[in-house]
Amino acid sequence: MLSQKALLLGASRRPELRRLVTGTPATCRVVDRFVAGETLDDALAVVRRLTGEGIAVTLDHLGEGVTDRAEAVRSRDAYLALLDGLAPLDLGPAAEVSVKLSAFGQALPGGGTDLALELVRPVAEAASAIGTTVTLDMEESHTIDSTLTVLAALRRDHPGTGAVLQAALHRTLDDAAALAVPGSRVRLVKGAYDEPPSVAYQGRHEVDAAYARCLGVLVRGPGYPMVGTHDPRLLAVAQRLATLVGRTPDSWEVQLLYGIRTAEQRRLAAAGCTVRAYVPYGVDWYGYFMRRLAERPANLRFFLRSLATT
Ligand code: FDA
């Protein structure tokens, strides 16, 4: 039988189910917890607030799995508008952007990787022009080689382009070693997708142990590790390791999702850590929202209770 997590992750890939959860006040309340708003102005208001509190941001214009070139071009244009909106704030690297290549046409047949590279390149150029960077989010495991190909091409002109590695995958320790080179920005996460046992660890403890191993490689290496987790034990491991190898706060950072463990985000920033919140915005929140429900049974219970009381 499929687990609740697998069911929710399966539903996250079926946009036609979106109408089942859309449009109720309960949905709006719960979505608002994880998403900064639907418009660029909503996102910029959150950027001003968080950076004012000493928390850096990486902005995600929501969207994924586009099915034609026109949609992919619209994703590029949304990011160019976002970078235009960030320019006058003059935040430099304190406000960067995260992109999902599946929103840039990566999955389109016959040259999706080339199309994604063609469309993401101007975004990397616009980011460099205002002194900031792009990080390529990582999606399902079958997209990793394509994403790493785009990463390598972008890094030739924009060496600050960031990558994401998912500790749950068997291949990740090798990928971490390959990416642990000077200047390399790598966000390590546990992994948000439903992956089979042939490619991924299935148990929570196995994933946590794999995360700690990859963390060791990245923090001891010469790159710039971005520790993407809310897990207090792994955050403590990262802090201990960073101290052990003599990393200064400007040589690594902690990243958490907007709306999750916000008090901890402020506490870490006040304690002198570099903290960055991942801030999603836009109308296409369905896939992102369903993954957040899948991560934590309490979120689903809260959501269902809200629906019942609407
Ligand atoms: P874990 O799931 O064990 O949670 C630890 C604790 O954090 C929980 O006990 C709870 O307190 C809190 N928590 C975690 N998730 C929560 C939620 N949804 N709601 C409320 N509380 C929650 N994945 C991916 O595959 N590709 C990517 O590109 C990214 N990018 C990314 C960026 C950043 C900045 C973060 C923090 C995460 C991602 N992820 C991701 C998601 C990641 O893979 C993972 O699914 C989530 O971070 C949840 O795992 P944790 O490491 O937080 O641990």
From TrEMBL:
Gene3D superfamilies: 3.20.20.220
Listed EC numbers: 1.5.5.2
Proline dehydrogenase domain segment(s): 44-302
Binding-site residues, substrate: 100, 291-292
Biological-process GO terms, alphabetical: L-proline catabolic process to L-glutamate
Residue numbers binding FAD: 138, 166, 190-192, 229-230
Pathway(s) where this gene product acts: Amino-acid degradation; L-proline degradation into L-glutamate; L-glutamate from L-proline: step 1/2
A GO term for molecular function: proline dehydrogenase activity
Keyword Oxidoreductase belongs to the record: yes
Protein name: proline dehydrogenase
Provenance organism: Geodermatophilus sabuli
